[in-house]
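Standup notes
- HV: blocked on the assembly model, inputs below
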Amino acid sequence: MKKKCIAWLLIIYGIFLFFTCKHTDKQEEEAPIFLLDSTYVSVNIVASHLDVPWEITSGPDDEIWFTEQSGKVNKIDAKSGHIKTLLTLPNLYRERTAGLLGMVTHPNMSETPYVFIAYSARKSDQVHVSRVVRYTYETDTLVHPLTILEYPAWKGHFGARVAIAPDGKLIIATGDGAQNENAQNLASPNGKILRFNIDGSIPSDNPFPNNAVWAWGLRNPQGLVFSPKGILYNSDHGDATDDEVNIIQRGGNYGWPKIAGYVDSQEERLFAQDSILAPPLHAWTPTIAPAGLAYYASAEIPEWKNTLLLATLKGNSLYALPLNKEGTKADTVYHFFERTFGRIRAVYASPDGTVYMATSNRDWNPNGFAEENDDRILQIKKVDKSISTANLVLKAKIASNTKEMRSEGEILYTNYCASCHKPNGRGLTGTYPSLLHNKVVEGETAEFIRLILHGKNEMPSFSFLNDKDLAIVLSYVRKKFASKGKQISKDDIKKERVNH
Ligand code: HEC
């Protein structure tokens, strides 16, 4: 009797193993692996269908905590993937860029279980305010709100991020409220870096007595992070030009609205003469809409060690700015996952070397990248090199420093095709066919599309790309490498998908 039982158990266990193994094998086969420089990483979805995830950080017990602009503070159980909502804000004011934004957990939560959030609220029908509030974490909930800062919400440029300094002070980055004059006005909390004690009082060693202002002259900062050395970095949205990443110095003036980016016009030079001005670490024109910032300290992904990771919205990618040893210079910029996941709002580098980033494809200003399961939190994790032989490997890194503007088609081609068919389209004799004046590329549209959708032998299937991206990349290939053949539309792609 006993033996029979054990035999049955073994059989059931066997069936269980069969199905679970099969399942993971299949997943690994399907999910593309990305190559950074020399490190292979997987990009896994840890949360989907979110309402504009705005901040990612970690809580106690290695959990990932995140905010949604809709007013929720959530955490993800790393093991089960289960999401638990810790707080839903009442009276939230959400409009375009207003809502629940930045969040930081205290680095020593076991003794100081504090969580700080930045959001906008409806005080009455007419009055909207922005706030930074401290909550106390008690088993799976946030309680005892203490308002540290309340200031006018104005009408735009809400910022906002929060960080805890190595000396335990609370640092807040605020937007100018779309009221230019705020940023240079030391009596206004808008357009500033502010510094508080965690009980909400003003530290006695701030640059101006009884004033929370630590630095000023900012427009709409959406990135704020300390390196382990204690350097404070921030990102700031420029106007039509000059998005910036800055090193924030005590008492520094970052120039807005008098100076955008570097001091490079006569008017800016005049203003700079009698101001203490801190130049940006890096500035971008055309603009990239920079958002979250993370400092990568781990050795897990060697090419990112001592690098700032910057989430970009308009840039539709994760930028990497490798720093010099002192952390004071970042001359080169690399773009990762360009136009692969769409707009990126938040990035978090966890101490174990795993990186998390949040898409922002369903925010107030989407640009056509939204996937059915957006918005998502994606986990970038190193994988063993051997896995690369069994998977489709995509190059995650493109371009660098250059100001050259590349077309969407070229970017997609570089991301998805150039690893085999080579940037010049000539392929590799005997292995990867040349696309120059290729019969398939110049031939019947439907056949060309079918090949890309279904793949053939060593040629992978690209059915995971959406219709728009496929139309763009195939049109690019035709235009660039063929002497004849019409442009391919989204509908052409859709027709072939349906026909299949
Ligand atoms: C992993 C390598 C690889 C990648 C990436 C790849 N291809 Fe290919 N491609 C191949 C191979 C191998 C063939 C030949 C297949 C066969 O006929 O057996 C091929 C064939 C083709 C052909 C048909 C050429 C002919 O003469 O038969 C076209 C067109 C093509 N690829 C376009 C693309 C485009 C566009 C992309 C990007 C969206 C792409 N390929 C990405 C490996 C690749």
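- HV (later): unblocked. The chain has two domains: 33-395, 406-499. Residues 406-499 form a domain with the Cytochrome Bc1 Complex; Chain D, domain 2 fold (CATH 1.10.760.10).
- Next: hand off to the docking folks.
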